[in-house]
């Protein structure tokens, strides 16, 4: 999905993630990233952005989001590393958006 097809309310998230992960979201970052963003986004919105970047079906992504906070738990250290990766691309400002 291109920037122009992303709903307006998800554009900043999409751009932040595309900039932080220019080569796509790797397997090692996939679950920790969703776990980090889960606190700030609805499941549906998070799934829409992640599925558009990864190319995964939205239903699979929704299931993966639930796994990221229940079964496939990441350590605090791994989640903090993802946070550090997002900081140069406006993560702090993004968390303050409405």
Automatic annotation (TrEMBL):
<dbReference type="Pfam" id="PF11829">
    <property type="entry name" value="DUF3349"/>
</dbReference>
<dbReference type="InterPro" id="IPR044918">
    <property type="entry name" value="DUF3349_helical"/>
</dbReference>
<protein>
    <recommendedName>
        <fullName>DUF3349 domain-containing protein</fullName>
    </recommendedName>
</protein>
<dbReference type="InterPro" id="IPR021784">
    <property type="entry name" value="DUF3349"/>
</dbReference>
């Amino acid at each position: 999905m291109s920037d122009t097809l992303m709903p307006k309310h998800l554009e900043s998230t999409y751009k932040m993630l595309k900039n932080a992960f220019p080569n796509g979201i790797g397997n090692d970052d996939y679950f920790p990233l969703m776990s980090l963003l889960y606190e700030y986004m609805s499941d549906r919105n998070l799934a829409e952005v992640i599925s558009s970047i990864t190319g995964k079906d939205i239903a699979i992504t929704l299931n993966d989001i639930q796994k990221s906070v229940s079964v496939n738990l990441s350590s605090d250290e791994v989640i903090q590393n993802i946070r550090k990766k997002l900081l140069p691309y406006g993560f702090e400002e993004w968390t303050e958006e409405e």
